[in-house]
Design brief:
Elements: E1 2-6, E2 17-22, E3 29-30, E4 35-40, E5 45-49, E6 54-59, E7 66-67, E8 72-78, H1 92-98, H2 102-110, H3 129-141, H4 163-166, H5 185-200, E9 203-211, H6 213-230, H7 237-250, E10 256-259, E11 262-265, E12 271-273, E13 275-277, E14 280-282, E15 285-286, H8 294-310, E16 323-327, E17 346-350, E18 354-360, E19 363-377, H9 383-398, H10 401-405
Parallel strand pairs: 12-16, 16-17
Antiparallel strand pairs: 1-8, 2-4, 2-7, 3-6, 4-5, 6-8, 9-19, 10-11, 12-15, 13-14, 17-19, 18-19
Helix pairs in contact: 2-3, 7-8, 7-9
């Protein structure tokens, strides 16, 4: 009996998806619930499991095809057994090619590369476009250098440098190539949302700086006990999330959003935490962050970040946030102006912690300082509220007892 494999029902906000790569080929045996193919939407990668056990009889659509809910992807012969030799084992080059993403495959073909020479950084060794580009860069940076023989009757350069360098003759320039690849659906969606936010909101950024001495002392004092008891590391994000939740309660407009001519004041505090993945920046949401403990926040962030990078996070976990925190400091950013995650009205940017000389009680001391930035929609958030929001976050972090006491 043949069973059709169809595109699962996509979330209401997603019109279609892109078929990224098949995990099986015709003639392969498949187990029930085994992943057959990956589909990429605007936010997440969806896996399509086999509805029954049997043999994959036919693949209807190839990699890179745009698909919609209910569309037939493949046909499985239920209960059948794979015939030995029916699906010949692929050569190493074919096996490696199967692990290429569509964008990576295009770059490999354009540059006539051996796919098995490129190491993949993705799940199950999957090779992304960035892996191929990095391989090309490394290859161009270290071209093979044949051992030059000096002309007859001439001694080699005393410095050991190549003859053209010793003679002051510039080396021939390498090939100057352009590579054109389409944006991934996620990257295109990110671009669309960022442009939309800047085009439709009156964005302004205010700054402040925070002395993290008290936070560092707490982390140093309790980090081992915290990790032992809760199974999660005590990071900075839980402190910033709690501080922002407290500040959002004091300044409701920062937690609000614009809907036409109305302002929607959210009476809950769902804080999104930006996570960098191979596919781009995504924002898992901490529901009711104001009610979460430090341990709950740290465990939730670690879990969401891991599944986001593995591509197994769900659409529901990425939607509905009322405020966002992004940490460019993990990459060394000292200062930035983050862009609001529309339809939200504000976003807090964290930055690199750096020891700086500051004046405390009339004395110059060295403290671990961080610049923080609040980008906000000036249509509904006044400068006074934005500045006071940042001051509240600063006060909570410089005196963490405030977060315990709700002050």
């Amino acid at each position: 009996m043949t069973i059709e494999v169809r595109v699962p029902q996509l979330p209401e906000s997603v019109a279609d998806a892109t078929l990224v790569s098949w995990r099986k080929k015709p003639g392969d045996a498949v187990a029930r619930d085994e992943n057959l193919v990956d589909l990429e939407t605007d936010k997440v990668v969806l896996e399509v499991p086999a509805p029954v056990a049997g043999v994959l009889k036919e693949i209807k659509l190839s990699d890179g095809t745009t698909v919609t809910s209910g569309q037939v992807l493949a046909v499985i012969e239920e209960g059948a057994t794979a015939v030995p030799g029916a699906s010949a084992a692929p050569a190493s080059g074919s096996s490696a090619a199967a692990k290429l993403s569509p964008a990576a495959k295009r770059v490999v073909e354009e540059n006539k590369l051996d796919p098995s020479a490129v190491l993949g950084s993705g799940r199950d060794g999957r090779v992304s476009k960035s892996d191929v580009v990095n391989y090309l860069s490394a290859k161009d940076a270290t071209p093979p250098q044949p051992k030059a023989q000096p002309p007859a009757g001439k001694a080699p350069s005393p410095t050991g440098a190549p003859a053209h360098v010793a003679a002051g003759i510039p080396a021939a320039r390498g090939a100057r190539a352009d590579q054109r690849v389409p944006m991934t659906r996620l990257r295109a969606r990110i671009a669309e949302r960022l442009v939309q936010a800047q085009a439709t909101q009156a964005l302004l950024t205010s700054f402040n700086e925070v002395d993290l001495k008290a936070v560092n002392e707490l982390r140093s004092r309790y980090k081992e006990q915290f990790e032992k008891q809760y199974g999660a590391k005590l990071g900075y994000m839980s402190f910033f999330t709690k501080a922002c939740a407290l500040a959002l309660k004091k300044f409701p407009s920062v937690n609000a959003s614009v809907d036409g001519n109305d302002i929607v004041y959210h009476e809950y505090f769902d804080v999104g935490v930006a996570v960098s993945t191979e596919r781009g920046l995504i924002v898992p949401v901490l529901r009711d962050a104001d009610q979460m403990s430090f341990a709950d926040i740290e465990k939730s962030i670690a879990n969401s970040a891991g599944r986001a990078r593995a591509g197994t996070i769900t659409m529901e976990e990425l939607t509905g946030g009322t405020f966002t925190i992004t940490n460019g400091g993990t990459f060394g950013s000292l200062l930035s102006t983050p862009i609001v995650n529309s339809p939200q009205s504000a976003i807090l940017g964290m930055h690199k912690i750096q020891d700086r000389a500051v004046v405390v009680d009339g004395e110059v001391v060295v403290r671990p300082m961080m610049y923080i930035a609040l980008t906000y929609d000036h249509r509904i958030i006044d400068g006074r509220e934005a500045v006071q929001f940042l001051v509240t976050v600063k006060q909570c972090l410089e005196d963490p007892a405030r977060m315990v006491l709700g002050l």
